[in-house]
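Q: How would the structure tokens look for this protein?
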Amino acid sequence: MDDIPFLNQSFQLLCLVLARRTLPRWTGTPVGMGFSPTGQHHFTGRRLDSLYENQSLVWRRVVTEAGIAIRAIGLCKAYHCYKHPVDALLELVMRRQRHDRFIALDNVNLEVRQGEIIGILGRNGAGKSTLLKLIAGTLERSSGDLDVHGRITAILELGTGFHMDYTGRENIYMGGLCLGMSRCEIDEKLEDIIQFSELSDFIDRPFKTYSTGMQARLTFSTATSIDPDIMIVDEALSVGDARFQLKCFNRLQQMRERQTTILLVSHDTNTITSLCDRAMILESGRVYAEGNPKRISVAYQNLLFGSSKTKKDMLIERAGDLKNSGIDKDPDSNTENAQPDKKNSKQPRNGTVVSSETKLRYGSGEARLLDWGLLNDQGNDCNVITSGTACRLYMILRIMADLDDMSVGFAIKDRRGSVLWGVTNITQKYPPYQARSGETLTIVADCTMWLADGDYFVTLGVAHLDGGDKIDFVEDAIEFKIIGTSGIFTTSIINLQTNFRIMDGNAIKIKK
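A: Here is the predicted structure in token form.
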């Protein structure tokens, strides 16, 4: 076509018209695994000059404020849904609407600073993947403003951008080229990618013969082989085995230390609380809540297992609910000189039960927790405990309806919301408990607090064994502080009461 100037000029003009009609903000086409070769994408006043200067098209975005990696204002994405394929043609010809409008993302506002790790929670269909695809540039928005600054690497789906008939090695080269690397750069990093993926025995086999976990390994290894400014991960780590997941999280931590901005979608609240600086919940295409990861994880549990309400009601009530639940409070706030609070200063005596306030509570209401607490080895309520001290967790439960499959238990979490320990009647080999309406039950768990110095929280509750539907759950019902730990790393979480010795010679008999 280059030999025919007229056709070449006509083709460029056609590109210009189509670009103005269909790409009002973008200058390039997404390639590969949702990767942006040059990363920065936003039209400037001369956004189409490259068509006439024989320059390659690149994505360029102008960010006026330093330190902002991603900013979305009023971001929306809507789809036209037709009952029959021919309706799209009839709508065009007859100029009459023949489609239903489905709003996947509705008025989303988001600001992410460089180096932040943002966790995104939400039920299936809430709009999480749609938001990430808009940010990655693989999907065009319907309205709103979106500014992204930096090179983007996105893992939106397993194997996206990989050819099923190509070998793993060939797909590494194809993915690397999509990332903007030269062939020489790929050659230099090839062995590191293969070694990280642990697929050296399968790297020359067709990609279609890989298991889902193997595809996740190769996809993640290739995507993180460069140092992007923004990393987007959409549930791609949930299918790998535990050992590889640990490697992936360590890699993300390394990227975090390099001030890489990371957007992470996961249904695992422990991952969100342990890895992310901030979190948000999407519900029905809108931002349901945003703030501290620990509090947002609690709100997400309430959204999943709380009382049944319509989505509209939940969205309307979320502001007041979250404010009352302390969503924006910092779990890492200093708790030195801890004093017994009002909740922990009481305990039931002679059958007297005192109701208590909660931070966040949800469930069907078929049973009701009346009281709970933490007792030391003297039988007194406490919230400051010396490590290694025997303690008793208790709760008092009133049965409001007949239950045939009741499971009840406690869980201890750290300041970031990671579960360190948990126990139920089922784990203790009790059968599912059958309770009758009107009964009052006391549940106790005696344990030794071999925990390291720090602040901890107890979540407790009752649920149906079949399906796990929550009956009455209280998040962070008890807060306590451990002091006096010695003999272990200061960064340790638990104390295993180690018997540590150094002996002469070969004192351990090794079985061959």
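The mean pLDDT is 75.

The chain has two domains: 30-285, 360-483.

Upvote if useful.
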